[in-house]
Amino acid sequence: LTARRTPTGRTRVRQTKMGGRYNNKKRKGGGGDDRILKRDFKKGKRDNVWDPKKSRVPDAKGEYKPYCKENEKFEEYYKGQKIVPEDEWDAFMESLRTPLPTSFRINGTGKFALDVRDQIENKLFAKVNEGDQSIDEEGNVVEPPRAVRWYPDRLAWQFNYSRQQLRRLPFLESIHDFVKRANEYGSITRQETVSMIPAFFLNITPDHRVLDMCAAPGSKTFQLLEMLHGSLGEEKEKLPTGFVIANDVDLKRCNLLTHQTKRANSPGLLVTNHEAQHFPDIVSRGGRTFQFDAILCDVPCSGDGTMRKAPDIWPRWSVGNGNGLHPLQLKIAVRAAQLLKIGGRLVYSTCTFNPIEDEAVVAALLKQSEGSLKLLDMSDQLPKLVRSPGIHTWEVHTKAGKANSFEEAQEVAKVHPTMFPDPSYAKLPLERCMRILPHQDDTGGVFIAVFEKVAEMPASLNPAPKKLKGPITIKTDLNVVKDAVKVEFTLVNTHELRAEREAIAANGGAPLEPEAELLLTEVRGGGTRNRQGGGSQFGGLDPILPVSDEKVIHSIRDTYGIDLAKLPLDKNAVTRTADNTRPKRIYALTDGLREYLAADHREQLKVIAAGLKVFERQEHKDATASEGACDYRLVQDGLHVMLPFVNRQIIHPTIDELRLILQRRSLQLPGAEDPEKPDRAKFMDDATKAEVNAAVSGSCVFVPRISAADASALPAGCSPEEIAIACWKGKSSVNLLVSKVETDHLLEKLGMEVNKNGPKGGGMDVN
Known about the structure:
Blueprint lengths: L1 E4 L5 E4 L57 H10 L7 H8 L5 E5 L3 H15 L21 E2 L8 E4 L3 H6 L1 H16 L2 E3 L18 E4 L6 H12 L12 E5 L3 H11 L7 E4 L19 E7 L14 H4 L2 H21 E11 L8 H11 L3 E3 L12 E2 L6 E3 L2 E3 L2 H4 L24 E3 L1 H4 L4 E8 L18 E10 L2 E10 H13 L38 E2 L3 H11 L8 H4 E3 L9 E4 L2 H9 L7 E4 L1 E6 L14 E3 L1 H7 L7 E2 L3 H10 L1 E3 L17 H9 L3 E5 L22 E5 L3 E4 L3 H10 L2 E4 L2 E4 L6
Parallel strand pairs: 7-8, 7-10, 8-9, 10-11, 26-28
Antiparallel strand pairs: 1-2, 3-5, 3-6, 4-5, 9-23, 11-17, 12-17, 13-16, 14-15, 16-17, 18-19, 20-21, 21-22, 22-24, 24-25, 27-30, 28-29, 29-30, 31-32
Helix pairs in contact: 9-10
């Protein structure tokens, strides 16, 4: 938790991911530093980097002194909370002192994900049980990776091997290398097991508006996007209409978030940079509201449930960590409930065992909601998940010890009344909350509560109106009520009032009504960089502009044979280039995301990233390029979303030709072979040559032609479209437009072993 003094003299509390220490004393000089992770760095004061001088120094053998995993105050506190049965206490503490297993989940859904699982399980993990390999050099039994038992279809796995075992046992090193490579490629996501749980309780469908309020680093957001797309099943020529907003308060973490979620390749992603407790309401000019169907509220917390992977928390833990974050957590939860639509679902989660951050927040939220929220019983969901029920009473401690009342505690520490259990809480169904303890299934710790909204939240909880910025005008409204004229005066921004009057005039003078469809016709996103006319409020960001030039859209449509009725690029294509008549990059949005951005006429949203990059400008330099040729090429990032809608510029090489262009990155055009360079790679198949010659110069797509004999060359369940690649047909050659990392991934899929010296033929252990 950090705080800063605003120009009005008020202290603004600022949220940071995964908690931090609360300290209401002003720091003097430079002595001491209680920062733990990125969450502890104060915005604008110091660089968000780790000081090497404060890092642990290895000894002469290159080994680090382990952290002391003892904390008497921690044990005393949690024994008093009674969240762990007395006969399980020793197992609980012993589990906390052991390293957290490595865990990952297989990305995607359906048959392909199941086939990837079978390949990994049968070819890679099976090696652990071969012969004497299950015993390491010190005689310890090496357990094979195990499926996370509650995760559907065994698509999540975990293992726990020491560094010594990974170094000395090649078959274990191959597992470790696979996890690193596959995570980089996007086939799997490395994610803590308990972090995978909350998303399953949101019941996301393709039309949902989803908000991840505190999203960084992005693994849960990735899950939400998969669920948004995966619920479409095998419908290729269909995109979700909904969207997922990934929000975080820290701009640098937003950039990390953008990078992490890029692998999802979704046109339904919006990354924003706001304090979660102040996330804006979006209402269109006609009064159309945009509440959310599902909200994940994974709030900043003290993080003691992560001690197994962050042992530095042991010596730093204190009761002040959770006490300081409680009011912020409650504010975020209340804001989430306000943003949720009636019938929508809210998941509140933390990675701490602390009831001050868990049940106390849930109980206060239920009390303040006055019946607007219902705490759901999820015991029938994920039945194999071992969990403990929530508690109805708890202790509050300060640095002076146990506090029996708010009045007693506030004399020695900064506390809040909502931290203390109330007798009325006995009637609340707090046992429906879930707490996962590390010894129950060899995981970290997490707390989860699931709500359904049944009525609007009390108006008394609504945020205070924001201070008006810019020129201010008095707006006068005249209304006739029972033959009497009622006059209302309101202070409004002059520019907004002018825009409202223009909209009413464009509507024939009639009052504005909620729009049936919202089209993006103006600048959005709040960015001011290179913005024509200036204005807006967020410096250093590019604005979002619709691709307004019909020539650009029609050129793309005609070149690639895209049916705009199925993929409405004329409505859903945006750019962040100031000159939107010649955009450098074009991003595709879902229908719902386009309407959401269009509704933000006040530009309250601070947008870091929006949609999926699908085209990039690459002008023709060859004399052979025909007049009117399309200057926009398909990009690999968006290719698999676009491919079902592309009907032209598709070439079907043989598997051998696909391998060849992946290895050599260029193939000579038929008839353009250079006799002075006989070693240059070229097309071999006549049918492929004919298709290459028929394609116009510019961007094209290679989708392999699979014969019965070639079927075994692909991984089980892998379709030709899943290994399609973006290329560029030039004057004398066809060149690959795929990154080195993605190229290596595709070569591995095609049975080529990839190493530092480049690919070579040979079977692969996996895929």
